[in-house]
Design goal:
The chain is mainly beta. It is 14% helix and 40% strand. The chain folds into two domains: 70 residues; 298 residues, Methylamine Dehydrogenase, Chain H (7 Propeller), CATH 2.130.10. It starts with a helix and ends with a strand.
Length: 390
């Protein structure tokens, strides 16, 4: 019934990180039992859906208080004795021109040389980052191609956007081949596709959408393998856990939430709600034990999954524009964040201070991605170009 669905979803949102393998804190256990009882028995005498919602809000506050008691020390305090990062000298090494409108997304190939980008002009371009040659070009039947990703093998790319679809395109050595004829529609949402990534094989594709869901698809058959429901507004970004055996991913959306999901069960296993506006991007820490987020509230935040809480906020009073994208250095010490004021800020993850500002783009930054070997950073922008920094 709608009541059971509502109460169970409230139960999951209040206790997202409960694990059957770990002992339950008494308050969490009581909350879970109370919500389960509400779901199974339905409305009792004198109860209304509004009163139950008020009760869940009270329980939610109690849980936050319990979580706050464990918040004993800040990350920057722990890192006071850590050695400071030396002066950074990061400059533009390449400017890639070829798109006729805003570049909305890009991704590196694992060969550390090739990249794919997508644009509001409806085109997807595969680049050689060394020579700046365009190796492949593909025109999609819609504008605003908001998502693109390279397959792990390097032999295919995925792309999607305002047509609500995500398609996979196999690449070949023949640069004159008609890629559009080989394009295969894999994913279908009921609203725009905001993000896509392959899992650790070419055979599965993970997508996020403006319909408020994420989904896992079989590339060969196009079948939906798992859907992920928990956001209450557009999902704007997702990122797969870096471990090859990892079965989790994180998503962020317009509901100001960042959710961690189990791909096997489809369950939301952790949830974080400290941002004050849309979360535009989420990105795992290299170890997979934490992740960062970028938001329209002008901050980037760092969440530790083991501590189940936010441990750092990267912000300055002078930064008044939204943060649109983030990525980590190979070591995890640096956080690269792109903003709507056309700049890329480099943050010290441990100490929380800004180390450098990268200037060069002439419009907002839509994407920053570190190369697989960690030697270069690529940024995509609404100024129709991509830049490679080193």
């Amino acid at each position: 019934t709608p009541l059971i669905t509502t109460v169970l979803s409230l139960s999951l949102s209040l206790c997202p990180s409960l694990s059957p393998l770990s002992p339950l804190p008494p308050l969490f256990f009581w909350v879970f039992c109370r919500l389960s009882k509400m779901a199974c028995q339905g409305l009792q005498k004198g109860e209304t859906l509004a009163s139950l919602k008020r009760e869940t809000e009270t329980l939610k506050k109690k849980l936050e208080e319990e979580r706050g008691k464990l918040n004993d020390v800040e990350l920057h305090q722990v890192a006071e004795k850590a050695e400071a990062v030396g002066a950074l000298s990061i400059k533009t090494k390449r400017v890639l021109k070829g798109h006729g409108n805003k570049v909305l997304c890009m991704d590196w190939c694992k060969d550390k040389r090739r990249m794919v980008s997508s644009s509001q002009d409806g085109k997807v371009i595969v680049w050689d980052a060394f020579t700046l040659n365009k190796e492949h070009g593909l025109s999609l039947p819609c504008t605003w191609v908001m998502a693109c990703a390279y397959a792990p093998s390097g032999t295919a790319v995925a792309c999607g956007g305002l047509d609500n679809k995500c398609s996979v395109v196999p690449l070949s050595l023949d640069k004159n081949e008609n890629l559009a004829a080989k394009k295969k529609s894999v994913a279908m949402h009921t609203n725009y596709v905001s993000g896509c990534t392959f899992t650790n094989s070419d055979m599965q594709l993970l997508t996020s959408s403006g319909d408020g869901t994420c989904a896992l698809w079989d590339v060969e058959s196009g079948q939906l393998l798992q859907s992920f429901h928990g956001h209450t507004a557009d999902v704007l970004s997702l990122d797969l856990a870096p471990s090859e055996t990892g079965n989790t991913f994180v998503s962020g959306g317009s509901d100001k939430k960042a959710n961690v999901w189990d791909m096997r069960s489809g369950q939301n296993i952790q949830s974080f709600e400290s941002h004050e506006s849309d979360i535009n991007c989420v990105k795992y820490y290299p170890s997979g034990d934490a992740f960062a987020s970028a938001s329209d509230d002008s901050t980037c935040r760092f969440y530790d999954l083991r501590a189940d809480r936010e441990v750092a906020v990267y912000q300055k009073d002078s930064i008044i524009f939204g943060a649109s994208t983030v990525d980590f250095s190979m070591s995890g010490r640096l956080l690269f964040a792109g903003y709507n004021d056309y700049t890329i800020n480099v943050w010290d993850v441990l100490k929380g201070n800004r180390l450098s500002i990268l200037f060069g783009h002439e419009n907002r930054i839509s994407r920053v991605r570190l190369s697989p070997d960690g030697t270069a950073l690529c940024s995509a922008s609404w100024d129709n170009t991509l830049r490679i920094w080193a």
